[in-house]
C-alpha cells in the first residue's frame, strides 16, 4: 500500500501545473498562439492588399488572448506579405515595417495592436482579422484552442458570435478560452 501511495503522489507532483499564479501577476513573455498565415496578396473577405500602407482611414484596436489563464501572443506579420522588412521596436520586440505587400488589416509587432489602414472609411470585424490570420474563431474555438469562450470589449462581457465583434478605434478586446481571466485593460502608446 505504501508503494502505491508513493506512486500516486509522484504522479500528482509530475502532472500538477507548476505555475499557479494569476495572469495579471505573470511576468513571463507570452508564447504565440499560432503563426501568421502565409499570404499571397489575394483579397481576404474583400479586404485588399497593396504595396504600401493606406492611411486615409487609420485606426487601431488591441487584442489580448488567454488560454486557460495563460496569455498567448498575437504574432507580428498578420496581414503582411513576406518577405518581411524586419526591425526592432524601442523595447527590442520584432517589428515588421513592410513586406512584398500589406493588407488594410494587419499587425506590425507582437503587442496585440491591430492596425486598420485603408483608402477610405471601412468597417472591420474580429472575424475578418482571424481570417487574415488564417485561424478559426467560434464561440468554442480561438485558433487551435478549444473550450468555453469569454469575450470582453472595453471591459464589458459580450455574448454572441465573436466573429461579429466590430473593430473600432481604441477598442480593447480580450478573449478567454477555458478559465476566465479578469479583464486586463490596455493603454495605447502615444500617437496611436
What does this 3D model show about the protein?
The chain has one domain. Helix content is 11%, strand content 34%. It contains two helices and 18 strands. Strands 1, 3, 4, 9, 10, 15, 16 and 18 form an eight-stranded mixed sheet that branches. It has a three-stranded antiparallel sheet with strand order 2-8-5, with no helix packed on it. The N terminus is likely disordered.
Radius of gyration: 19 Å
Number of separate helices: 2
Number of discrete domains: 1
Distance between the termini: 64 Å
Low-confidence stretches: 1-27
Gross geometry: globular
Share of helix, binned: 10-25%
Major sheet description: 8 strands, mixed
Q: How many distinct beta strands? A: 18
Strand content: 25-35%
* Helix/strand order: HEEEEEEEEEEEHEEEEEEE
Structural class: mainly beta
The overall average pLDDT, rounded, is: 88
Characteristic key phrases:
single chain, 8-stranded mixed sheet, 34% strand, disordered N terminus, 3-stranded antiparallel sheet, 192 residues, mainly beta
Secondary structure elements and pairings:
Blueprint: H1 2-15, E1 31-32, E2 49-50, E3 57-67, E4 70-73, E5 80-81, E6 85-88, E7 94-98, E8 101-103, E9 105-106, E10 113-118, E11 124-125, H2 126-133, E12 137-138, E13 141-142, E14 145-146, E15 149-153, E16 156-158, E17 166-167, E18 172-177
Parallel strand pairs: 1-4, 3-18
Antiparallel strand pairs: 2-8, 3-4, 3-10, 5-8, 6-7, 9-10, 11-17, 12-13, 13-14, 15-16, 15-18
